[in-house]
Amino acid sequence: MPRSARKKNSEKSPHRLSVSLSPEQHAALLEIANENKVSVAWVVREAIERLLHDEQPLFHVRRPG
């Protein structure tokens, strides 16, 4: 497969991420997922989506000057 075709496919394909959670964090995610009848993965994706579109950034970058 040509390199350009591979790049286009990888841009559209999902990316996997490995994250370590505390037992309390995992339990909280499981509870949210069970209450809403969705998977923990869905809860995590939704949380990331909300973080990325939040008007207040997680990290404030100081501008020089």
Outline the structure in words.
- Helix content is 58%, strand content 0%.
- By secondary structure, it is mostly helical.
- It has one domain (19-65).
- The relative contact order is 0.07.
- The model has no long low-confidence stretch (mean pLDDT 83).
Provide key terms for this protein.
65 residues, 0% strand
Helix content: 55-70%
Mean pLDDT rating = 83
Structural class: mainly alpha
How many strands in all?
Answer: 0
Q: Which descriptor suits the 3D outline?
A: extended
Would you summarize the structure shown here?
The chain has 65 residues and is mainly α.
SSE layout and pairing:
Elements: H1 3-12, H2 23-36, H3 40-53
Helix pairs in contact: 2-3
